[in-house]
Prior knowledge:
- The chain is of the alpha/beta class and 547 residues long.
- The chain has a single domain, classed as FAD/NAD(P)-binding domain (3-Layer(bba) Sandwich), CATH 3.50.50.
- The protein is 27% helix and 19% strand.
- It contains 15 helices and 20 strands.
- The protein has helices at 9-12, 16-22, 25-32, 37-43, 65-76, 175-178, 184-199, 206-211, 216-227, 241-249, 276-282, 334-347, 395-398, 449-466, 528-546, and strands spanning 55-61, 81-84, 123-124, 127-128, 140-144, 149-153, 232-234, 286-289, 292-299, 305-312, 318-331, 368-373, 390-394, 400-405, 415-422, 430-433, 438-441, 469-470, 485-486, 511-513.
- The strands form 5 sheets. Strands 1, 2, 8, 9, 10, 11 and 20 form a 7-stranded mixed sheet that branches. Strands 7-13-14-15-12-18 form a 6-stranded antiparallel sheet.
- β10 and β11 (318-331) form a beta hairpin.
- It is globular and about 70 Å long.
- The two termini are 42 Å apart.
- The relative contact order is 0.18.
- The model is unreliable at 1-43 (pLDDT under 50).
- Bound molecules: flavin-N7 protonated-adenine dinucleotide.
- Flavin-N7 protonated-adenine dinucleotide (FAE) is lined by residues 61-66, 84-87, 151-155, 158-159, 162-166, 262, 293-294, 332-335, 337, 341, 487-488, 515-516, 526-528, 531.
- This is Cholesterol oxidase.
- One of its GO terms (molecular function) is cholesterol oxidase activity.
- InterPro entries: Cholesterol_Oxidase (IPR052542), FAD/NAD-bd_sf (IPR036188), GMC_OxRtase_C (IPR007867), TAT_signal (IPR006311).
- Pathway: Steroid metabolism; cholesterol degradation.
Amino acid sequence: MSARAPENPVLREISRRGFIAGTGSVLGATALGVHAAPARAAAAPAPAPIADGARVPVLVIGTGYGGSVAALRLAQAGVDVHMVEMGMAWDTPGPDGKIFCNTREPDYRSYWLRTRTKAPLNYFLGLPIDRDIPRHTGILDAEEFGGITVYQGRGVGGGSLVNGGMAVTPRRENFGAVLPSVNADEMYGVYYPRANAELGVGVVDPAWFDSTACYQYARVGRKHAQRSGFPFVFVPDVYDWDYMEREAAGTVTRSALAGEILYGNNHGKRSLQQTYLARARATGRVAISPLHRVTSVAPAAGGRYTVVIEQIGTTGAVTAVKNVTADRVFFAAGSVGTSKLLVRLKATGALPGLNGEVGRGWGDNGNVMCGRANHMWDPTGALQSAIPCCGIDNWAAGGAFAEVAPLPTGIETYASFYLSITNNPNRAQFSWNASAGKVELNWQAAWKQASITMAKTIFDKINSREGTIYRTDLFGVYKIWGDHLTYHPLGGAVLNRATDNYGRLTAYPGLYVIDGALIPGNTTVNPFVTITALAERNIEKIIATDL
Ligand code: FAE
C-alpha cells in the first residue's frame, strides 16, 4: 500500500491534510493546539472529583479508547456521564515545565508505583539500563503476571498517553478471525471510518519520508524487507505529521524527534485528550475523576448499582473510600483492568451471575520484539523519529506483521529494531486466587515460542539475504527475543461469549463491557483502531435500544 493511496479502502478515505479540514472545529482546533497543552492546562482549575454518596446516570470505569467513545456518544445523546480513572490527569507541567518525561531520562513520572524503571528494552550492549525512581503514580504500568509483563497506560487517556499512535485497520480478509460475530460490512463501511476520522489518523508524506534523516532507520528497514521479497507497508498514525515535519525543520519544539514515546509526548501526538475526550468534555455533560480506582460494583435497589471507589494520592496510598450509585456502569478499564474486576466480583459474590466465560480468551496479540545488527556501511541514523511509520506484512505467508520500530537513543546503533504482531494461538485465563486475595493470569512464558517461530519467517530470511545476525544485547546477556512482554493485552470478557454481541453483561441489565477485553486475543495488527471502532458500533446500538 502506498501512503497517498492506501490499498485499504478505509485508509484511502483519510488523507493526512483532509483530517484537519474534515473534522469538527473543536477537534481541529485542539489538534492544531497540541503543542500549547501545558500552558492551557495549567490555566484551567481541576473540577471537584466525584463525591461520596453521589448518584450518577452513567459511570464509566477507565478513560482509554472504549471509555472515551462511550462517554462522548452518551453525552451527545443527552446523558450525563462520570468517568473514573485510577491514573493521573496529566494536564499539569512538572518542575521542568513539561507534563511528560523523556524516554532517555525516566523520572518519577515514568512508571506506575515502582521504585525502579522496567523498560521494555532493558539492556544495551549487554548492560542493564533500568534505574531507581521515586514511587509515584506514573504513566506506564509494567504489570507483572507469572509468565508475562503487560504494559499499560495509566491516566486520563489510558493507553493513548503512552502508545506509539500506530492506527491500523486490519485487512478485511482477516477480520472474520478477529471478531467472528460482528458484521464486517458495517465495520468497514461505518465504524472503522468513523473511528479513524475521530482519532485523527493520517499517513506520512512519502516524499518527506524518503528525504528526512529521522526515518533513515525505516528506509533501511524497507530496503531489507524488499530485498527479501516481503511486502512493505506504510502504517497510519495519530501523530500530527505536519508537526513532525516542522520538528525536523527546527521551527517547533521537538517531541517525536526528541525521543519522546512510552512516557508521553509533550507535543504532536493526538492522544484521546486531544480527540474523543476533548469533544466529550465540550458537551458539558462529562466529568472525570482522576486518581480514583473502582474496587467494586454490586446491585443496589431499583435496578441500580453501588460502585465502591478508592481515591488515591500520588504515592498510591488510599485517601478516601467513596460509595456512588449509578444507573448504568460501563467497564472500560482495559483488557486487564476489566477482566480483573469482573473475575474478582464474580468469585467474591458481588456479581455471582456473571457467566463462566468471564476471564477467558485472553491473548497478547502475539507481540515479540527483536533487533538485527546491521553492517557498518548500513547505518540507521543517530536521529530517529520515535513514531514508527511502516511495517513488513508477512501475515498471510508467515503469521507475522512486523513494525519497523525506532531505537531513539540519540546515537548511531547500527541496529534495526522490530515489534512483531504474530498469529500466536495461545489464550490464557484470569482466575481468582482466594488465599492470595488477587486475580492471576495463567499465561505460560513458553507460549511465546509460537510468536518467535512466526517472526523468524521474516528475520531469518532477511539476515540470510543481508549477511547479518540478530542483536543479542537488547533484552539481557545474550538474549535475542523480547518475549517476556506485551503492549497489546486483549480479551478476558470476549464479545458474544462473556457478553452479548454488543458488550452487555446480560445477567445484570445496565452493566456493559466496552474496551479491549471484548476482543478475543488478537487483531492481526495494532489494536486501538479496532477497539475504538467496536466501541462505536456497540454504543450506537446500546443508545438506540437500552436508553
Ligand atoms: P486502556 O486504553 O488501557 O484504558 C483503560 C484505562 O482504565 C486506563 O487509563 C487505566 O488506568 C484505567 N483503569 C484500569 N483499572 C481501573 C480501575 N479499577 N478504576 C479506574 N480506572 C481503571 O484500555 N496500540 C495501537 O493500536 N497502536 C500502537 O502504536 C500502540 N502502541 C502501544 C505502545 C505501548 C507502550 C503500550 C503500552 C500500548 C500500545 N498500544 C498500541 C496498545 C493500546 O494502547 C491499547 O490496546 C489500548 O489503549 C487499549 O484500550 P482500552 O480502551 O481497552
